[in-house]
Recover the amino acids of this structure.
């Protein structure tokens, strides 16, 4: 996608012009690939805004949420009695009575159908979405890159195997797998909360999503490796006697970093949608912990009474996914403007 | 070519076997006795055993799998649901047209949007239209289909019918249905809606929801492909030769740009035919996705396997068709 | 000469029609007052038209229409209006609706040893089209044979265990059931042991009259002629059901509408509720969106101007926390009693919705004969501070050290996590730390039914098969025969004294049986408290504006055959 660039990139002249303007002798500074990419990215305002949004969201979710919980005096899973007035969830900015008689403030989102603070649940849901999306992407990328490089480099039998595995995953019953994983090793996996940092259920979700998203980067990496391995430097490396593994790691991988970064960001975006879908269908994060998908599925029941319950999680998903997509696009433009990835 | 097809068919059989075996294995890894669920409300342990014997779930897994294969290959029978003993063939054959209606209709819709918008954007890059299109595309791929479906269903379905929104009341009218599916061939006994018009009417919102996400992807893809093709030498040659723009577009650009699109289209439709779960769930369409979700919830193995069989057949068929089509269109590609 | 004759005959005709009309409209029983809940006491017969088609939608499909297999509550609701049984429950609400009355047969005669029951079939009943055959004693014999047929794999088999020759017939060893004898219009059953619940069991929909020779189909037939006021004309699984009036029925039970069309079997609750409000649907029960309960109750509840359209009546079910007596946490009865004092019954119900249930602390729900003799021991309101201190002192007296660690098993879909959160909160206040483990529902009760499973509290509920205290007290709390898997006694309650009291009570008949069970249940809850029962769920029913006359039958729910379309 063409980013909103203002000045056309003219090699040589711009670089030279800048240096001349500084008043010294015109020196030609060779900019590295990464530095060029960074400069390109900096000019893409949308990508920068997205990156800032993501950082802000992460801060709000991981640091802001506990602070808000402390300030408000109640947690995201606490049932606040005054939060449900006559069986209708309370609106935003309600001063609700708790069961112990004290008062507590329901900010922004009001409460959900059980009297829990929607705002806090949104923030904690952001934690879940970010954690699951990022970790699932990391694992999926790892798996996909390893398999894709192997398939592209070795070709032949290995390639066939990997391609066929891709087809199997596509025809696979996703839901059954998700439920089966949750039902069998789920309780044990869910116990891994990384010293209480993660809500239970993250590990299972990450595993399931990674399992179903590795084939996308694998395919892309494989195509790239297929073209790369014909290049001279690979042949040279082979002649020098490098092992296959060495070639893949030291010679091919650096060329793939750009692809990995770009697709990684885009896959995070899809994984956010994926996690929300799984939670909506009930096989994602177990209640009562909040995830954006959970919030959406609960909102359906009450949309006849409080339609804005649908609004917050949907908007949150939209903005976050949009940010990751814009960032990914910006990275792609910066790292490979000719669009070969 | 023939050898290629044979090899692909052999692979198809391997794929089919692997997926079904894995499904059986996963199913029995879950520590639930399906006989318990199929034995009625409050069964005695003896009753559970009797039902287990009747359903065959007390046999070893490999025996059950062999029985399933034999019944499928020889009798063309997918078995009977554990939950209500309805023939799975009937279930799948009733659900498949629903999903097909949604997916194929949605595919037509998204291509109707994606091709003109993508081509136009590619021909006029960075114009106002292009920017608006790209922005909409971004929103389209970022908004969750569940959310889009719920909002559409609420705004155009529930609000007009209920007669109030945001605290205001107004005379209610039916604009679009909130959910539901009508059989294109007409209402069966006892049902209220049927026939092609009702069928279409009930699918409008689902088609829009389903198409938005894919349309966005395809606009980007078509735009990128067309832009890349426009830079190719042969296009420049054609233009230099004086061919009219429309002809250049039609004969050279589109044909080449659409090839990878065709591949993606085939794959996307194949996967979606396996069950467009989310849209079906939001709009209450009794398709394969809904069938799979309920079956998994009640540990109804025959129905689960039935949907898996159908999904793998779709994936295999479409992949094969697309590969053959691709090879046929582009003589440079040699299959195998 | 002719004119007076003409006038006379016209007058006679008019009078006859008037009488017939009055009989048809007024022949329905005006029931006694309804015990709990709603104001839909007896049948209020309003001006109505006979006939018409009633449109119904379900949000959860039925299981079968075949009497040998149908087991869900919504299929039994249909069968209540289609079946002709030996004995039946009357089309009345409240206590009157719990008493068995003659249907196809008079009340049976019992032999002195209580092992033989003889029913005399009344004449004049015929099956619906396409059968049109008369109902005889042989048809009831066939119904039971079909249920026990080894190829039918019916769910009725466990209830026929006491019938002589049933087991052999079901195993395929004999060609007929030796315990059933038919002579003329009498059918008699010989049992292996005295079973006072036999007539009650015979009133289950499994034992509907079906035409002699109805096909055996283990997958369930999709239309079965029946001899009640209505019959199932067609059933397309997942799509629709059509129930039509039986033209051959001339019995006492009411039947107004011509046809019931179940137009949708998996409707979205939001849509279903809207359509019932607007009149596009006439009746929904499970399709009422729980979030709408309160607005619907306010607008259409008792005393509303257009007539009551929204009803919440107790079902034949109880929700309870099964306290595992076989594990250290709850092995002491005083700790279990403390739980009963400390839980916030209204608070738990509130997490599920408005009028979703009524707080209860008894073992038996209203609707089970004998429940009226069971006393409520524990508070039905939110626990006061004295309740909490009582609970705490009970735990102190027991000598068990706090904090007590307990593991609770519950399901993983709404509203389980929310309600168990309240329970957790309640128990924390008295020193019990509850860890909540969620499972898919099927996994949950499989685990709970497995002996030795490490859980302390089971978040459970029970829906009876037949309204007799045995199906509550003995089945759920007798510790003599707890199986190693798939058990129903989730508290693993095994108290020798109570076991023998239960066995003794099972042999009693008549009102003495119910009084004894009532006292027994009270004593169990008061002394041993193996459960913390907290609610009796409500069946929610919502009608369109044009529906009327309906009666809430305590055993089967709203009776279809009592529904009429108002003029």
């Amino acid at each position: 996608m063409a980013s909103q660039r203002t000045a056309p990139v003219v090699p040589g002249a711009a670089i030279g012009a800048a240096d001349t303007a500084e008043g010294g002798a015109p020196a030609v500074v060779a900019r590295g690939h990464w530095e060029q990419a960074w400069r390109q990215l900096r000019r893409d305002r949308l990508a920068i805004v997205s990156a800032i949004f993501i950082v802000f969201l992460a801060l709000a979710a991981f640091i802001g949420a506990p602070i808000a919980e402390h300030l408000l005096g109640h947690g995201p899973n606490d049932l606040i009695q005054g939060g449900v007035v006559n069986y209708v969830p309370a609106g935003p900015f309600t001063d609700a009575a708790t069961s112990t008689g004290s008062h507590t403030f329901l900010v922004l989102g009001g409460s959900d159908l059980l009297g829990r603070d929607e705002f806090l649940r949104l923030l904690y849901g952001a934690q879940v979405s970010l954690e699951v999306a990022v970790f699932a992407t990391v694992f999926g990328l790892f798996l996909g890159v390893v398999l894709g490089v192997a398939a592209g480099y070795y070709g032949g039998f290995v390639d066939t195997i990997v391609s066929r595995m891709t087809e199997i995953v596509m025809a696979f019953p996703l839901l059954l797998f998700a439920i089966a994983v949750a039902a069998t090793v789920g309780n044990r996996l869910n116990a891994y909360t990384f010293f209480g940092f993660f809500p239970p259920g993250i590990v299972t979700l990450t595993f399931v999503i990674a399992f179903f998203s590795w084939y996308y980067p694998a395919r892309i990496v494989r195509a790239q490796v297929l073209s790369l391995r014909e290049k001279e430097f690979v042949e040279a490396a082979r002649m020098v006697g490098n092992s296959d593994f060495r070639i893949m790691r030291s010679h091919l991988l650096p060329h793939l970093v750009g692809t990995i970064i770009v697709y990684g960001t885009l896959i995070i975006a899809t994984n956010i949608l994926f996690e929300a879908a799984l939670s909506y269908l009930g096989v994602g994060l177990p209640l009562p912990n909040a995830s954006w998908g959970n919030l959406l599925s609960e909102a359906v029941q009450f949309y006849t009474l409080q339609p804005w319950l649908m609004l917050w999680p949907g908007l949150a998903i939209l903005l976050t996914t949009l940010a990751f997509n814009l960032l990914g696009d910006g990275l792609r433009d910066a790292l490979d403007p000719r669009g070969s990835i | 070519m023939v050898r290629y097809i044979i090899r692909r068919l052999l692979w198809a059989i391997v794929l089919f076997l692997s997926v079904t075996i894995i499904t059986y294995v996963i199913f029995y890894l879950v520590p639930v006795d399906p006989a318990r669920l199929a034995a009625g409300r409050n069964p005695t342990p003896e009753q559970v055993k009797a039902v287990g014997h009747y359903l065959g779930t007390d046999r070893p897994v490999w025996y059950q799998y062999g029985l399933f294969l034999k019944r499928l290959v020889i009798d063309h029978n997918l078995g009977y649901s554990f939950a209500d003993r309805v023939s799975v063939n009937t279930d799948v054959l009733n659900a498949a047209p629903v999903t097909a209606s949604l997916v194929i209709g949605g595919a037509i819709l998204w291509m109707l949007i994606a091709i003109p918008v993508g081509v136009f954007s590619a021909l006029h890059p960075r114009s106002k239209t292009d920017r608006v299109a790209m922005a909409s595309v971004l929103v389209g791929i970022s908004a969750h289909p569940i959310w889009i479906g719920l909002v559409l269903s609420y705004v155009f379905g529930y609000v007009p019918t209920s007669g109030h929104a945001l605290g205001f009341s107004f005379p209610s009218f039916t604009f679009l249905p909130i959910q539901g599916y009508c059989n294109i061939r007409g209402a069966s006994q006892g049902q209220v809606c049927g026939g092609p018009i009702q069928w279409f009417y009930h699918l409008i919102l689902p088609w829009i929801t389903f198409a938005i996400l894919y349309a966005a992807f395809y606009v980007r893809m078509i735009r990128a492909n067309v832009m890349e093709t426009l830079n190719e030498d042969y296009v420049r040659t054609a233009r230099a030769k004086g061919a009219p723009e429309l002809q250049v577009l039609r004969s050279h650009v589109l044909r080449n740009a659409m090839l990878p699109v065709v591949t993606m289209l085939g794959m996307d439709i194949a996967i979606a035919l396996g069950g467009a779960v989310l849209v079906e769930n939001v709009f209450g369409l009794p398709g394969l996705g809904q069938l799979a979700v309920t079956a998994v919830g009640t540990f109804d193995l025959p129905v689960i396997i039935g949907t898996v069989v159908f999904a793998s057949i779709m994936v295999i068929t479409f992949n094969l068709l697309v590969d053959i089509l691709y090879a046929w269109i582009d003589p440079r590609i040699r299959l195998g | 000469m002719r004119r007076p004759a003409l006038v006379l005959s016209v007058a006679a005709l008019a009078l006859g029609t008037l009488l017939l009309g009055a009989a048809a409209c007024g022949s329905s029983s005006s029931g006694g007052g309804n015990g709990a809940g709603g104001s839909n006491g007896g049948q209020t017969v309003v001006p109505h038209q006979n006939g018409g088609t009633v449109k119904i939608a379900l949000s959860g499909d039925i299981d079968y229409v075949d009497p040998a297999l149908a087991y869900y509550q919504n299929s039994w609701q249909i069968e209540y209006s289609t079946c002709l049984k030996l004995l039946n429950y009357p089309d009345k609400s409240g206590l009157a609706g719990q008493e068995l009355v003659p249907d196809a047969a008079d009340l049976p005669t019992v032999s002195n040893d209580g092992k033989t029951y003889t029913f005399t079939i009344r004449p004049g009943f015929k099956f619906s089209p396409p059968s049109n055959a008369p109902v005889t004693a042989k048809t009831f014999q066939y119904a039971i044979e079909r249920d026990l047929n080894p190829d039918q794999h019916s769910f009725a088999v466990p209830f026929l265990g006491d019938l002589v020759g049933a087991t052999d017939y079901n195993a395929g060893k004999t060609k007929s059931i030796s315990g059933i004898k038919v002579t003329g219009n009498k059918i008699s059953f010989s049992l292996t042991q005295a079973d006072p619940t036999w007539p009650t069991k015979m009133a289950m929909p499994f034992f509907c009259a079906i035409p002699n020779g109805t096909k055996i189909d283990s997958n369930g037939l999709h239309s079965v002629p029946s001899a009640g006021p209505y019959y199932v004309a067609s059933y397309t699984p997942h799509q629709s059901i059509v129930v039509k009036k039986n033209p051959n029925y001339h019995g006492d039970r009411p039947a107004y509408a011509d046809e019931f069309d179940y137009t949708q079997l998996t409707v979205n609750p939001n849509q279903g509720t809207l359509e019932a409000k607007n009149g596009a649907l006439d009746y929904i029960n499970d399709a009422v969106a729980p979030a709408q309960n309160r607005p619907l109750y306010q607008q259409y509840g008792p005393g509303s101007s257009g007539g009551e359209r929204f009803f919440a009546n107790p079902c034949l079910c109880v929700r309870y926390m099964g306290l595992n007596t076989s594990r250290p946490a709850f092995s002491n009865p005083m700790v279990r009693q403390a739980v009963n004092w400390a839980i916030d019954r209204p608070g738990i119900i509130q997490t599920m919705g408005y009028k979703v249930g009524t707080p209860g602390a008894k073992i038996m729900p209203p609707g089970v004969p004998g429940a009226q003799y069971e006393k409520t021991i524990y508070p039905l309101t939110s626990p006061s501070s004295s309740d909490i201190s009582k609970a705490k002192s009970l735990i102190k007296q027991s000598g068990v050290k706090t904090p007590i660690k307990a593991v609770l098993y519950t399901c993983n879909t709404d509203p389980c996590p929310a309600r168990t959160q309240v329970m957790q909160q309640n128990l924390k206040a008295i020193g019990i730390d509850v860890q909540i483990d969620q499972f898919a529902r099927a996994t949950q009760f499989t685990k709970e039914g497995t002996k030795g499973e490490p859980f302390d509290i089971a978040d459970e509920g029970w829906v009876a098969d037949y309204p007799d205290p045995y199906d509550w007290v003995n089945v759920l709390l007798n510790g003599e025969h707890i199986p190693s898997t798939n058990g129903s006694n989730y508290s693993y309650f095994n108290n020798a004294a109570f076991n023998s009291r239960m066995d003794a009570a099972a042999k009693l008949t008549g009102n003495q049986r119910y009084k004894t069970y009532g006292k027994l249940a009270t004593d169990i809850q008061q002394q041993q408290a193996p459960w913390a029962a907290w609610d009796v769920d409500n069946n929610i029913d919502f009608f369109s504006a044009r529906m009327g006359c309906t009666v809430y039958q305590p055993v089967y729910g709203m009776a279809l055959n009592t529904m009429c379309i108002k003029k």
Summary: The two ends of chain C are 41 Å apart (CA to CA). Residues 441 and 470 of chain C are 26 Å apart (CA to CA). Residues 2-26 of chain C form the longest helix (25 residues).
